[in-house]
Amino acid sequence: xxxxxxxxxxxxxxxxxxxxxxxxxxxxxxxxxxxxxxxxxxxxxxxxxxxxxxxxxxxxxxxxxxxxxxxxxxxxxxxxxxxxxxxxxxxxxxxxxxxxxxxxxxxxxxxxxxxxxxxxxxxxxxxxxxxxxxxxxxxxxxxxxxxxxxxxxxxxxxxxxxxxxxxxxxxxxxxxxxxxxxxxxxxxxxxxxxxxxxxxxxxxxxxxxxxxxxxxxxxxxxxxxxxxxxxxxxxxxxxxxxxxxxxxxxxxxxxxxxxxxxxxxxxxxxxxxxxxxxxxxxxxxxxxxxxxxxxxxxxxxxxxxxxxxxxxxxxxxxxxxxxxxxxxxxxxxxxxxxxxxxxxxxxxxxxxxxxxxxxxxxxxxxxxxxxxx
Length: 373
What we know:
Layout: E1 3-4, E2 10-11, H1 21-43, E3 48-52, E4 58-61, H2 63-69, H3 73-76, H4 87-91, H5 94-105, E5 107-115, E6 121-132, E7 138-147, H6 149-163, H7 173-185, E8 190-198, H8 200-207, H9 209-227, E9 232-237, E10 240-246, H10 254-264, E11 269-271, E12 274-276, E13 279-287, H11 294-311, E14 316-318, H12 322-342, E15 346-354, E16 361-370
Parallel strand pairs: 2-6, 13-14
Antiparallel strand pairs: 1-2, 3-4, 3-7, 5-6, 6-7, 8-10, 8-13, 9-10, 11-12, 15-16
């Protein structure tokens, strides 16, 4: 029976010495041990275990290999193991590289896609060990393959959940920032649109979350249809979406592009035989004029969106440097008012309104002021 050397490869047993009664008994015990080992390996069904000669030809085959790959032993023994690989991997010389690596280093271990007898693909974890005799001569390879397709599917599902919105299947904020960073790294101009659905909260509160979810999915499809292949659409959260337009750097073309999106939302959203209407507000920031990082562009597009929603005279707004100063002034005023409330600095005054006919007070008008100490 082949045994493993300290180097990690397998060594075949040395030829038996001259026959003696004692050696005959030892050989008999060895043969019985080899038989038990062979039966054990061949009965395992949880993984594929088989042997290759130095050229990669299959020399034996266990029931696990038949279960995973679909070939019976008579069908596959004597065939080259490269037929388990995809045409692309065979053309790239992967089977030969695997045997070369195993022969050079004593072991090859990796994960990859393999092909069953019926042509279907599966993910496999592969270990290839060398088998050498006591002189170091290469006798072949021992190969173990496990089907890890279910594990890979679970990993892919988890990755998708981490990078895509579960409701609309659009890239989420994390993925959108990665795509935005990639586009910015090219140095080419781009435009970022931040979109907000006007009236969505009322629809969600009135018709319920099921209606809200259906409308969000329909809105995502309308945005994608309007953008086409020219840009990347993502959902930032709630009723906010974003569109990245790589290579789009002409500010004079922004109105036409925004109008196309807004027109897509003029049509009602049907829900249980009831039409629901929503508006669309858009904030626009352009690189490199308005920023050269994802965080800066998203922040400036958000400020432009805030201005578009506040003015209501137009449905879109291109970012201007003064927007940040105005936002900072609003924030500072909000903080000062909160601090004054906590410090008890508000005082109530009554201002009389006097009738000009007789100069008597007509009414007392309360005024709230801040007492500054």
